[in-house]
Amino acid sequence: MNFKPFSIYKFRTMKEDGRNINAPLVTFRGDNRITRVGAFLRRYKLDELPQLVNVLAGDMSFVGPRPEVWKYVDKFRDQYSKLLSVRPGITDPASIAYSDEEKLICQSEKSEDTYLALILPEKIRMSSDYIEKRGLLKDIGLIITTVFKSWRHKAE
Fold first, then answer.
1. Which of 121, 58, 130 is nearest to 87 (CA)?
2. What are the domain boundaries of the chain?
C-alpha cells in the first residue's frame, strides 16, 4: 500500500530467461516463454493460489485492486496513488472483466503497447470505481464470480 513494494507469490509459469531483460512484461496465449505446465496453471488460474500466503501475511486481501508490476505503476503513478491507498487483492472487478485479456493482447502486434494504451487504463478505472463502492456484499459477490469464472475456463 502507498507505493510500498512487496513480494507476490505465484507459481512460476514461464521459462527463466535472464538474458532478455527487454522482453515485454505482458504475456499472451501462445507466448513461447510460457511452459506447458505454466499454460495449464494459467488457464485454470491455479498460478494465483500461492497468493493465499500473501493474504495470510497481511500483504493482500481476497478482494482489492490487483497489484501491478512496478514499471506500469510508475508510468501511471497519479492514478495508482488512489489504488495503492488500499490493500491489493487476489481479485477485483477489473480482473474478472479482463480474465481473458490474453486474447486481446495476442490480436495486436505490439502486446505491451496495447496493454498500456487500452487495457491498463480501463483496469485502473474499474479498480478506482471499486474502491469508491466497496463493501462486504460486493466483495462476496466478486469472490463468487471469480470462482465461477475460473470453473468456466475449465469447461472451455
1. 58
2. 36-155
Q: Which of 144, 150, 136, 5 is nearest to 70 (CA)?
A: 5
Task: Please state the three-class secondary structure of the chain as a single string.
Answer: CCCCCCCCCCCCCECCCCCCCCCCCCCCCCCCCECHHHHHHHHCCHHHCCHHHHHHHCCCEEECCCCCCHHHHHHCHHHHHHHCCCCCEEECHHHHHCCCHHHHHHCCCCHHHHHHHHHHHHHHHHHHHHHHHCCHHHHHHHHHHHHHHHHHHHHC
pLDDT tens sequence across 64-108: 999 998 889 999 999 999 999 999 999 999 999 988 787 777 766
pTM tops 0.85: no
Phi, psi at 71, each rounded to 5° = -55, -40
Q: Residue type for 44, please? A: Y
